[in-house]
Design a protein that fits this description.
By secondary structure, this protein is an all-alpha fold. It has four helices and no strands.
């Protein structure tokens, strides 16, 4: 709860970040927020493995092409 309160005080809301990412034309699945304790090594490894596999399935994000199309 302390971390949630801190994020709120800083004005950081993961849902808002995902909406912003979507508005920029970036697939929100490319951003992931997980709360993992330092004692949860196995969970950390699983989350990283799962996220890496998901990003690989999405394929590369060509930021230069995206920016070029938005500016033109």
């Amino acid at each position: 709860m302390l971390l949630k309160r801190l994020l709120y005080q800083l004005g950081i809301d993961p849902r808002r970040v995902k909406r912003l990412i979507s508005q920029l034309g970036i697939d929100p699945r490319r951003v992931r927020l997980e709360w993992i304790s330092t004692a949860e090594g196995r969970k950390f490894a699983q989350v990283i493995t799962d996220f890496t596999n998901e990003i690989k399935e999405l394929g590369p994000f060509h930021i230069k092409e995206y920016v070029r199309s938005e500016v033109a």
